[in-house]
C-alpha cells in the first residue's frame, strides 16, 4: 500500500494534500531545496506554506535546537521558568514597536489568533468582532468564525458575533477604473456603514491580515489599516494584525506587514515561519489588553524550550543577515521578471518582498480560472519547482520561499514559472 493510500485510509477525508494521486513526500532538505522519497530534488518557492523562513538544514538553527535537546529536557511545562522563552519574548517585545509590550506564546497561528481574540474580547467585555471577507485566521471555533472563506470554515456555531467588511481588492479595483485612493475611500465608507448598523462602542476589535495569505495574497492599498484605525479609534475598537504570514521581514519593505499601513496595532499575532518549522506562535500586544484576562490562561507547550530555541535562532538570523533587505531585493527581481511575461491567462502579479501571488483568469476576461492555475502548479512541480495554490476562487499561485533565496535561485524559479505559464497559455 502506498503512503498516500495509507494516509487516505487513516486521515479524515477533508485534509487537503497537494498534487492528488501524485502526492509528495519530502524526506530531506538543504538551503532552498528539498528532496522527495524518490530522490527528486525541488527548488522550494513555498517553504511548506511559508513555514521554512530561513531554509532547510541551517546550521545556526539546527545547532540551537540540538543544544536544547542535548540537555535531555525537550519540555516539562510552562509552569517553570524557560530561559529561551523569556529571551525570545524580550526580543519580540523590542521589535513589536509597542511600548510596554507583553508576549504570550502558542503552538500555532490558530491559537495565536484565538488568544488575541480572547484578550480583545475580555479587555472590551464584548464578543463582537469586525473581520474582513476572504481572510483566514485559523481552524479553532473563534478563528473559524472570523475566517471569511467558507471552504475553510464552518462557523455556524460561532462564539463571536462577527461584522464583515469587504476585502479591498486592487486587481478588481483597477479593472473597474478605481485608483488606490478610491479604494481607500470605499473601504472607509464600508467600515462606517457597518459600524452604523451596530452599537459601535460595543465592538471589541478588528482582526485583519496586512496581506491576505490563504485568500490569495490580496491586499488593500497601503495605508488601509491606518485609515481603518482612525475610525476604530473614535469608538475605542482595538486593532489586531494577523502577521502569521507577513511578519519577520517577509514583505521586504518592513519587518511587519502592518508597517506599510502606517499603524501600530494593539495586538499582533505571529506563527508559521518564526520557528523555521518548529511549532511556535504567539501574540505581542499592549500590556493593559494582554493583562485583561481575569482568570489564569495557560498553554502547556506554548513557547517550549525546543521551539523557543528555534525561535531565538530564527529571529537572530533574520536580523543579523538582514533578510528583510534580501527579501526586498530578490523579491523585486522576481516580481519584475513575472510582470514582464506577456500571457493573457496571467491577470495579476502582486506582492511585496518574498510574498508573491499570481492570479490566473480565462484569457482576455476577468473570470477566475482554477483549472489553468492547477495546470501551471502541476507543470512547476514536474519541472522541479514547488509553489502554493490558493485564493477565494482557487486561481492564485502563492510563493513564499525562504528569505535566504539567492538571485540565481530566483532566476532558476522564474525560468520554470515562465515555461509553465507559456505552456498553459498555449
Ligand atoms: N493566520 C493566517 C494569516 C494563516 O495563514 C494561518 C495558516 N494558514 C493561520 C492564521 C493559522 O495558523 P495555523 O495553521 O498554524 O493554526
Automatic annotation (TrEMBL):
Pfam families (UniProt xref): Aminotran_3
Instruction: Look up the record and name the cofactor or cofactors this protein needs.
Output: pyridoxal 5'-phosphate
Q: Do you know which SUPFAM superfamilies this protein is assigned to?
A: PLP-dependent transferases
Give GO terms: molecular function aspect only: alanine-glyoxylate transaminase activity; pyridoxal phosphate binding
InterPro entries per UniProt: Aminotrans_3 (IPR005814), PyrdxlP-dep_Trfase (IPR015424), PyrdxlP-dep_Trfase_major (IPR015421), PyrdxlP-dep_Trfase_small (IPR015422)
Top enzyme category:
transferase
Does Transferase count among this protein's keywords?
A: yes
- Is Transferase tagged as a keyword? yes
For this chain, the family text in UniProt reads:
Belongs to the class-III pyridoxal-phosphate-dependent aminotransferase family.
Self-association state and partner proteins as the record states: Homotetramer.
Name of protein: alanine--glyoxylate transaminase
Amino acid at each position: 500500500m502506498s503512503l498516500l493510500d495509507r494516509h487516505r485510509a487513516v486521515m479524515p477525508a477533508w485534509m487537503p494534500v497537494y498534487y492528488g494521486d501524485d502526492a509528495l513526500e519530502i524526506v530531506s532538505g538543504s538551503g532552498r531545496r528539498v528532496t522527495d522519497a524518490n530522490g527528486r530534488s525541488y527548488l522550494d518557492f513555498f517553504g511548506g506554506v511559508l513555514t521554512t523562513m530561513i531554509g532547510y538544514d541551517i546550521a545556526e538553527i539546527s545547532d540551537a535546537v540540538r543544544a536544547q535537546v542535548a540537555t535531555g529536557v525537550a519540555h516539562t511545562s510552562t509552569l517553570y521558568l524557560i530561559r529561551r522563552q523569556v529571551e525570545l519574548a524580550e526580543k519580540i517585545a523590542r521589535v513589536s514597536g509597542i511600548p510596554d509590550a507583553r508576549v504570550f506564546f502558542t503552538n500555532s497561528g490558530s491559537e495565536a489568533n484565538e488568544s488575541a481574540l480572547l484578550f480583545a474580547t475580555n479587555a472590551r467585555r464584548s464578543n463582537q468582532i469586525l473581520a474582513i471577507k476572504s481572510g483566514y485566521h485559523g481552524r479553532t471555533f473563534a478563528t473559524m468564525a472570523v475566517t471569511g472563506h467558507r471552504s475553510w470554515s464552518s462557523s455556524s456555531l460561532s462564539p463571536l458575533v462577527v461584522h464583515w467588511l469587504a476585502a479591498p481588492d486592487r486587481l478588481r479595483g483597477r479593472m473597474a477604473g478605481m485608483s488606490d485612493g478610491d479604494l481607500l475611500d470605499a473601504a472607509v465608507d464600508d467600515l462606517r456603514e457597518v459600524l452604523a448598523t451596530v452599537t459601535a462602542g460595543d465592538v471589541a476589535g478588528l482582526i485583519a491580515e496586512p496581506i491576505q495569505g490563504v485568500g490569495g495574497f490580496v491586499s488593500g492599498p497601503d495605508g488601509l489599516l491606518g485609515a481603518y484605525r482612525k475610525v476604530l479609534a473614535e469608538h475605542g475598537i482595538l486593532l489586531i494584525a494577523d502577521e502569521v504570514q507577513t511578519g519577520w521581514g517577509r514583505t521586504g519593505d518592513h519587518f511587519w506587514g502592518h508597517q506599510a499601513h502606517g499603524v501600530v496595532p494593539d495586538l499582533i499575532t505571529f506563527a508559521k515561519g518564526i520557528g523555521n518549522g518548529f511549532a511556535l506562535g504567539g501574540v505581542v500586544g499592549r500590556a493593559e489588553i494582554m493583562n485583561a484576562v481575569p482568570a489564569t490562561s495557560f498553554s502547556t507547550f506554548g513557547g517550549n524550550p525546543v521551539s523557543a530555541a528555534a525561535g531565538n535562532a530564527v529571529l537572530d538570523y533574520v536580523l543579523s543577515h538582514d533578510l528583510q533587505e534580501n527579501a526586498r531585493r530578490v523579491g523585486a527581481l522576481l516580481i519584475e521578471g513575472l510582470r514582464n511575461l506577456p500571457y493573457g491567462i496571467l491577470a495579476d502579479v502582486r506582492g511585496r518582498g518574498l510574498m508573491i501571488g499570481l492570479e490566473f483568469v480565462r484569457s482576455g476576461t476577468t473570470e477566475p480560472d482554477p483549472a489553468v492555475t492547477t495546470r501551471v502548479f502541476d507543470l512547476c512541480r514536474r519541472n522541479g519547482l514547488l509553489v502554493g495554490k490558493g485564493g477565494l476562487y482557487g486561481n492564485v499561485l502563492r510563493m513564499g520561499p525562504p528569505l535566504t533565496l539567492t538571485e540565481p535561485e530566483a532566476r532558476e524559479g522564474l525560468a520554470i514559472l515562465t515555461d509553465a505559464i507559456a505552456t498553459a497559455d498555449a
